[in-house]
Design goal:
single chain, mainly alpha, five-stranded parallel sheet, about 60% helix, about 5% strand
Length: about 900
Amino acid sequence: MPYHRPLSVINSGHNRPAGRLIGRARQLAVLDDLVDGLFAGRPARVGISGAAGTGRTALLRRLLATARDRGAVAGLATCSPVEAGIPFSTASQLVAALHPPARFADLTTECFAGPCEGTVPLLCDVFAELAVDGPLVLAVDDLQWADAWSLRCFTAMAARPGPILLVAAAHGPLSHYLGDDAGPGTRHQLDLPPLTEADATALLRETPGEPGGAAFTAAVLSIAAGRPAVLRDIVARWTSGGHGPEPEQVPHLVRIGRAVTSARAARVRRGLPPDALALLRAMSVSTSDVVLAGRLAGLPESAVTGALEPLVASGLVAAGRPAEPHLAAEVLAELDADARGDLHRRAAELAHATGAGATVAADLLRAAPAVGEPWARTVLVEAAEQWFLQGRTSASADALRRALLEPLEPADRAALLLRLASMEVTQDPDAADGRLRRILAEPELSTLPAAVTAADLLLARGDVETTRRAVSELRGRAEAHARSGEPAPESSTMDTEIRDPARRAADDSSTVDSDLIALGRLAEEEAAVDPDMPVAPLRWPTRPGGPAEAGAEAWRLATRGEDRRRALDLAEQALIVREDAPLMPRIAACRALLCCDEPESAAEGLTAVAAAARRRDARTAAAQALLYRAVVDLRRNRPEDALHDLTAAGRELPVRSWHPALVPAYLAVEISAHLKLGRVERARRLAAEPLPRGGEHTAAPAFLLYARAELALAADEPEAALAAARECGRILRSRQWVNPMLAPWRTFAAFALRTLGDAAAASALVAEEQALAGHWGTVVAFDSLRERAVAELRRSVPAQRRPVEPVPEPVLPAGRRFEPRRPEVLSPAEQDVAALAARGLPNREIARELSIALRTVELRLTKVYRKLGLKGRSALTERWATWTLGD
């Protein structure tokens, strides 16, 4: 039969690889020898193996080009995983490559019409005919994806005599696919290892579009990992995108590299046997122990080695785990959410059963659905603490969030919510507050001791509204049960104080009630008094029922300037408490001590509170204790110490995580401290900083206004100082905080009035302030405080604007003195209505609180205004708390 040069020889210039194959000199020499031997009549078969991207295809194409150039008949078939199930799909590619279309059509009819068993010898005959008149090269790329019948055909061809070179590129050795059966010719296996760094660098320099620059070279070499095909793909994508060589483009180069490796790995995975794919998924989840991964994949131990071989050969797996971390994530991403979660759950169970450690099992549980077993919660909590000690706060918080999905007893769930809130508060304070609110909102949690801690921490961060409302709702439910005559729920004892005070000491849960009552009272003191945000005031017990309530009552008395001796006694009681007592009543007691002119005791108490808060990891309470210790430092004229304490407070809880209601208090201390140190410009910059929204209606803005008044006087702006001081006073008076030891705003207002020439108004303010200090019993301490403030003002205010007598002595009628007291001209009923109206409650809320008709409230208020000579509610609010009668 005459020899017809096939199409593959005529088009021998096609598919020739460009450039030289760097780092493959040894392999090229072997292939050249095989081609020489083929023309000398020596048949051979050779396998080219290596991981994806190591250049198998390039080496195979170089061999084909060399053979064709010398006149051999050569054909190439490229296998695909999508055709792996089609009989003879690979062999038919070779037939089509080696024959013209018309002849291929005839051969298709002749060879594929019968059963598959008969097709194998027919195809072998077709290939053998091509080798009659000259050498024949049959090349197959990606042989690992060849169909089974084509593999049978190639195995049979390897046994045929004649000048035939059978060459195949695959992940594994040729014998893995065609067997080790003896046949004519020699057998060779060429493995393609990754390129050395020197060879990879040389290849990069010869690649068109090479980015250039040391940073780019390092990035490309790192991603390519010695795989020439990967390197070329990265550079090609980089060039096609028109990117420049700027160093800031390196991250984009890295993203391109990952996209290249991901695309190649995805193609390889599509052709994996089912066992290998299952093993890869198991290894992508967690373990580097292949046997355990096989168990997780559901494979018998005898099948694990066979499943692992294609993973290692293809480069998907190295050192017992996916070769690159992002590839493991992509393997799992191919599963649906349920399958992925189930795989993580089974992996966690296996890790726990084999004693892999809490952190290993917890890491798997974080991506798994609820297990419903006690060990899961134990493992997650244990791992959370280990990660927290290692500084991995985010992982620790994730573990606790996951633990909350497991079935938990109420006390355990509350404990986890508290622990999680303490971790989240620095990075996500709103989420932390949400955990605490959940404890107060859920009925089965709100009566536990954890509810006290939650309310305490919310109040410490400054969320007074939530604390007040939560405690109000708890007491409201208890009072409703008491009024209805029905027994309260077994877990609820919020009505114990109302029904039977004697039971409180005998009932452990009464401590929860007492502490919540105290926190509710403190929240109500600090909360908004804006009429647009009404919350009915709570009916508190007339006498403190425990140390926490003592602290709250001490603070209430101090703010109103009533019964200094009792306030001192209560504050001392509040500081002698158990270790787990709430912290905010103790801080309130320390603030009361400062108002009582006991700064040393206040500082000592706040230091103890800060230490207790640190032991509990209660960052918010520690920060607030340090904030008020800074206030004490200012009172003791130690501005440097105040700034030091503010810095320490910021370390406990970054200021960005503070509640908006507390930020004004922080700024007030910082401004005053800098003013005392003569840093007026620094104080001015601080005063100009915008405040976060959310704390406008609490008490803290009053103290910031006080600091701004001080700053305005130092900056020779008496009008601004007077406005700030008066607004400070309005806020304090609206909540009946009249004690001048809180903030001597009248001194600054009097100084400004004197500067502006209104001596009479200045004298009246000073008289009022002295009367309040005298009523409270701290005249000497207050005079010292005021004299120091005046001395500082005289140093800062320009001489030409400084009044001769900056704070005048009060001018009183002969034989008269100022004595603050409630107006006696009102009846008790009128006094009750007036007191509630002065606190900002609207008429409807007053009626509800006093259980009277709305019309009755209106009539009594009309009588109050007429008897007191007032024009309306605003005048009543301003004058009620500090009402002074001169007659």
